[in-house]
Design a protein that fits this description.
11 strands
């Protein structure tokens, strides 16, 4: 038996296994880098205020907290008053989204809803909810669904009339928040 041929064959086999493992590790690192480096648009509570006509407006702050610019940004923001603490927002259809352009790294943009009449009597909660979609820098379309709940008991009168609920008093509601 030629031991040199046996050890050479064994060396070729082990080298082949190492090449396959290296390829798998490289693919996994590429996937991890895409997750870590991509654009990621978060939706943060932006507060509730009233217009000069006395209507309530909800605001949301979209912030790109990722490491690449977000492009083809589209969004929809809705506003609902309810006494139900377990209210769940309806599904958002992508055809209802409005184009909003791009969002550079680290930049925030605050948008507001259309005004709604101040409900009488005041409900327990106000909900700002919707969806933002964008392309993440690796040509993958992403979405963030959001629902922020505001307790109306913390509303403050505004100078000159109207009301204010600070963004710090908004919270991510139990339902309606997810992202891909």
């Amino acid at each position: 038996m030629d031991w040199t041929a046996v050890f050479t064959g064994l060396l070729v086999l082990v080298t082949g296994i190492l090449v396959l493992v290296t390829i798998c590790v490289a693919r996994r690192q590429l996937q991890d880098a895409r997750v870590l480096q991509r654009a990621y648009v978060s939706a943060l509570p932006g507060g509730i205020s009233t217009t000069t006509r006395g209507e309530l407006l909800a605001h949301v702050e979209f912030k790109n907290v990722g490491h690449l610019p977000a492009s083809q940004v589209k969004s929809l923001l809705k506003f609902t008053a309810s006494d139900d603490g377990d209210w769940s927002p309806p599904r958002v259809d992508d055809k209802d989204l409005r184009p909003a352009g791009g969002l550079p790294i680290g930049i925030s943009v605050t948008i507001g809803t259309h005004g709604i009449a101040v409900p009488q009597p005041w409900p327990k909660y106000l909900y700002a909810w919707g969806r933002v979609t964008y392309v993440d820098g690796f040509d993958e379309e992403r979405r963030t669904n959001f629902c922020h709940r505001y307790n109306t008991e913390v509303r403050e009168p505004k100078t000159g009339g109207g009301y204010l609920i600070r963004k710090e008093d908004g919270r991510h509601h139990e339902y309606g928040n997810d992202a891909n």
